[in-house]
Amino acid sequence: MKRTLRTRLIAGAAALVLLVGTAVAASTVTTKMIEANYMGIKIVVDGVEITPKDANGKVVEPFASEGTTYLPVRAIGEALDKEVAWDGSTATVYVGDVPGQAVNWMTKLPPYQINRSYSKIYDGTDHKSYMTISGQNITQGIYLYGDQDDPGYALWNTNFQYQSMTFTVGHIDGKKDRNAAVDVYLDGVLSKSYTVGWDQYPQTFTVPLNRAANVKIEITNSEGYSWDAVDYGIYNISFS
Q: What pLDDT score was predicted for residue 56?
C-alpha cells in the first residue's frame, strides 16, 4: 500500500543523508517541504534484488517525490561493487575512485589465483614485505616463479568491467639470469606476448581487455630450457 509522508528534508541531499548517515554542516544547509511517497519500491541490480541499508546497517526505504525516485547511494554503489565516500568539506559523494587519490589495485582487484607456493602477492599493507626489482623495493605487486613445464601465473576476475590493463614486469634482483616470456590471456585465449630480458630495465605494457571476463598473465623461461625457472615481478598494476 502506498504511504505518503510530508516532511522536511535537506534540500538536494535526501540521497546523501541516506548514504552516509552524517549531517551536513549547518552553515551549508537549506530546507524545503517535499512530499515523499513510499510505495514499496524495489531495487534490482543485474537481476538480483538488494535490500538498501545505511552505513549503520539500518534498512532504508526508497521513495518518490514529484516524479523523481530517490535511492540510497551507498546501497547502489555497493551493489555495483563500487566504494562510496563522503567528503563533508565539499559536500561531495564519490562512487568509485576519488579524483587525485591513488588506487591500490592490489587490494581493490587482487588476482584470485596464483601458481605454486613460490609465487606471492604483495598488497602493500606490510611495508616490511616486498620484492626487489632494479634496486627498488616493491610493496604492491606479484612475485611469479615458473618454468615452461609449470608457468608462473596470476589470474584476475575482471568481470567484463574494464577496457585495458597496465602493468610493469621486471627481473627479481639476485635470481637466475634468465629472460622471460610474458603471455597475456583473455578468457583463456592468448592475446599478447612479450619478452623481458633479465638485464633490461623493467618494461611497462598496456593490454586492451575489451571487457574480458578474466585475465591471466603467465611467465615462463623464454630461452627454451624447461628445467630452468624464472623469477619476475609484476607491479604498477592498474585497470581502466
A: 79
Residue 98, Cβ neighbours under 10 Å: how many? 13
How many residues comprise the chain?
Answer: 240
Residues 6+ apart with CB under 8 A from 13: 24, 29, 91
- The model's pTM is 0.64
* DSSP code, position 115: S
Q: 60-84: b or e for each residue (b if 16 or more CB lie within 10 Å)?
A: bebbeeeeeebbbbbbbbbbeeeeb
Q: Is there a contact between 182 and 142 (Cβ–Cβ < 8 Å)?
A: no
Least confident of 11-15, 71-75, 149-153, 233-237: 11-15
pLDDT, tens only, 33-55: 888 888 888 888 778 888 888 77
Identify the CATH assignment for 105-239 out of 3.40.50.150, 3.40.50.300, 1.50.10.20, 2.60.120.1060. Answer: 2.60.120.1060
Q: What is d(CA 233, CA 145) in angstroms, rounded to the nearest whole number?
A: 9
Cell of 100: 587525485
Of 59 and 19, the one with more pLDDT: 59
Q: Spell out the domain ranges in the chain.
A: 3-95, 105-239
Contact assessment for residue 195 and residue 103, using Cβ atoms and an 8 Å cutoff = no
CA distance 124 to 122: 6
Phi, psi of 17 (to 5 degrees): -65, -40
